[in-house]
Amino acid sequence: MADLTPEQAREALDVVGRARADVAHEVGLPRWYWWAMATGWVALGVIGAVGPAWLTTVATVVFGAGHSAVASRLLDGRRGTRGLQVSRSVADRRVPLAVILMLLVLVAVTVGAALALDADGTEHPQLWAAVIVAAVIGFGGPEILQTVRRWMHA
User: Cβ of 83: how many Cβ atoms within 10 Å?
Assistant: First the structure.
């Protein structure tokens, strides 16, 4: 490399910084993950609608533990794609927090929808609420996560 001016060096570092931020922005959860979570959400709704309370509790704990194990593995930033695998230092540490916040909101929406459906006299309101939220998760999970990440600057 020939003599670089400080301005050229700063410009090169800025380009590298923007490229790193773009790659970090791509760290997330694959589409199949969202559909698996939606399926689990409906399964919890079915169990809650027709199963005993103890089974609902056990299923919820198993679902949470499974989600935690899978999501933490996928969100560490080390999941390679066709042409890319990033280091832990590139993956933003706030992404798991964004997923947790998103899940808490989805749980609140599920409970609110179930209460509204129950007040309306719907049979098995928890199941229908789970189906509604599962559709949101399956069809819009990645986009919702990107929006939450943008709001959090993660």
Answer: 5
Q: What is the pLDDT of residues 53-86, one digit of tens each?
A: 999 999 999 998 988 888 877 776 555 455 555 5
- For residues 57 and 39, give the distance between their C-alpha atoms in angstroms, rounded to a whole number: 17
Which are the contacts of 124, defined by CB distance < 8 A and separation ≥ 6?
Answer: 49, 50
Q: Tokens 């819009």, residue?
A: 140
- Position of tokens 């909101």? 105
Residue of 74, 84, 136, 80 whose CA lies nearest to 108: 136
**C-alpha–C-alpha distance, residues 69 and 55, integer Å:** 21
Instruction: Provide the pLDDT confidence category of residue 128 given band limits of 50, 70 and 90.
Output: very high
pLDDT at 84: 55
Torsion of CA 36, 65, 49, 32, to 10 degrees: 0
